[in-house]
Amino acid sequence: MSPSSHKNHSLSTIPLSSRAEREDLGLKPHINSGFTLIESLVVIGILSLLTSMLLFYNRGTETQISLLKEKANITSALFKAKDLSLANFTTGEALFNVCGYGVHFEKTRYFIYQDLFRDCAASDRIYSKDNENEILKDDIFTLSSSLNLTNLADLDIFFLPPIPQVYFDGHPATGEKEVGLSNQERNIEGKIIINSAGQISNE
Questions:
Q1: Nearest CA-CA partner of 141 in 96, 111, 121
Q2: 71-82 confidence digits (pLDDT tens)
Q3: 47 in any annotated domain
Q4: SS3 state at 54
Q5: Residue 108, domain extent
Q6: What φ, ψ does residue 62 adopt, rounded to 5°?
Q7: How far is the C-alpha of 177 from the C-alpha of 171, rounded, in Å?
Q8: Structurally, how many domains does the chain consist of?
Q9: Which of 33, 81, 84, 120 is the most exposed place for a label (fewest CB within 10 A)?
């Protein structure tokens, strides 16, 4: 047996227990360039978690934007009803007088209405249920499917000229009244506040 053959045979019998030992002997370390099954499952799990978080964030952001838009629309409707009460107040011997304007709120929609009555002093200051003549057709608003009004019952905010005086559900306003908004899960909420002086704000 030649010296070189003997050297190779000796090397083959040496247990190479570490990368350092292999490198000391001039041998290339064994490199595993692929992913193990466990590593692949961990990567997939992390990607799934990140995707779920991103989708949840996008839905929450979209709902938040819808809520902000709806708060702005409700505030605008209340101001419009207040302005109409100042500008279009009529009284006299007509069959029906416009005794003022208000905003009627239901669970999934709201609209501006005009209080039609012959004698405004005897008016009830609320929307007459199912009286389509009282609804301003261009001022009907349907809530986004992701939002609800949180008020437990229908609500009327009415402005009686010429001041205008504020009425809540047909009664002279005292204190404040809130119009609440929330998403279906009730974890995103907002509200519009009207006080007895007719001041409107939102939170």
A1: 111
A2: 999 999 999 999
A3: no
A4: helix
A5: 69-202
A6: -65, -40
A7: 12
A8: 1
A9: 33
